[in-house]
């Protein structure tokens, strides 16, 4: 049976969604471990996996001076977003934390305007406004201190959005995808290492296994999404990325006995709708 490039792209982006959803579950199941310690284990595994991929290429990897700045920015924004996301995973329902992180594509629109000088159309503006409105139903701003983790989760989306903008810039400059994954994972591990040394919390075998699995799942997610966009353009497959939220909701219910409330579900629907809006807008625009 022959599989088209588009079908391969869809399969890889579905696999990426499953990988990131499982990463969130394993982080949650690791229990009472400091956020920075969790982040270190999540990143150190992809360092070896992506590093092995680079070595397999058998080519000397060179980083141009201009590329290095974008790699540093991608790694810095990505690390900040990752730490915020992990904090949210520790304090929010699994699906809520992942949904807030899915604000990233909408922040890409904003950052692309300022950094890449790309215009924002009225349709994109409506989508961004709608997504933020949906996020409010998940965050539930009441002035209560309990909303703090939700705000941090939304900031994780900001960091991820800025990081993805840098990835777009690096892609335009022809930088190898495995190098981007390796550099980010290594940079993030080094940032987390001092916190790990100063405040290391002994872990059980179970907790260690959960964090190693979170790293494996993250590597699967990162490499799969890179592969997905190699086989098919974003306009054809980006909508399937939201399968992560469906998987996260199911995993949260089955393994963590979590079920989002009515307001969160409403927020999901609004953000989903804005994502579908952007999918068809981008598809029609490029056609």
From TrEMBL:
Key words, A-Z: Membrane, Transmembrane, Transmembrane helix
Transmembrane intervals: 9-27, 69-88, 100-116, 121-139, 145-167, 179-198, 204-225, 237-256, 262-281
Coiled coil spans: none
Domain EamA: 8-139, 151-273
Location within or outside the cell: Membrane
Principal location: membrane
Topology in membrane: Multi-pass membrane protein
GO cellular component labels: membrane
Statement: the UniProt record of this protein carries the keyword Membrane: yes
UniProt entry tagged with the keyword Protein transport: no
Family: Belongs to the EamA transporter family.
Protein name as annotated: Putative membrane protein
Organism: Catonella morbi ATCC 51271
């Amino acid at each position: 049976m022959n599989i088209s490039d588009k079908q391969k792209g869809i399969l890889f982006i579905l696999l990426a969604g499953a990988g990131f959803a499982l990463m969130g579950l394993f982080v949650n199941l690791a229990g009472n471990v400091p956020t920075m310690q969790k982040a270190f284990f999540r990143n150190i595994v992809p360092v070896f996996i992506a590093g092995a991929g680079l070595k397999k290429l058998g080519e000397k990897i060179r980083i141009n001076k201009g590329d290095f700045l974008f790699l540093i920015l991608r790694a810095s924004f990505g690390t900040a977003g990752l730490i915020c996301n992990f904090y949210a995973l520790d304090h929010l329902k699994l699906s809520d934390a992942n949904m807030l992180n899915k604000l990233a594509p909408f922040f890409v629109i904003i950052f692309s305007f300022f950094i890449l000088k790309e215009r924002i159309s009225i349709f994109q503006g409506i989508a961004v406004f709608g997504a933020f409105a949906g996020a409010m139903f998940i965050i539930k701003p009441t002035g209560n201190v309990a909303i703090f983790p939700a705000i941090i989760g939304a900031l994780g989306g900001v960091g991820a959005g800025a990081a993805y903008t840098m990835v777009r810039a690096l892609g335009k400059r022809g930088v190898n995808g495995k190098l981007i994954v390796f550099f980010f994972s290594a940079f993030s591990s080094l940032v987390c290492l001092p916190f790990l040394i100063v405040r290391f919390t002994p872990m059980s075998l179970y907790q260690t296994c959960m964090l190693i699995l979170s790293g494996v799942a993250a590597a699967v997610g990162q490499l799969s999404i890179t592969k997905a966009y190699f086989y098919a353009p974003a306009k054809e497959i980006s909508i399937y990325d939201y399968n992560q939220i469906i998987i996260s909701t199911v995993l949260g219910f089955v393994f963590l006995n979590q079920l989002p409330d009515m307001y969160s579900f409403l927020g999901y629907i609004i953000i989903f709708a804005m994502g579908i809006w952007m999918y068809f807008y981008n598809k029609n625009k490029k056609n």
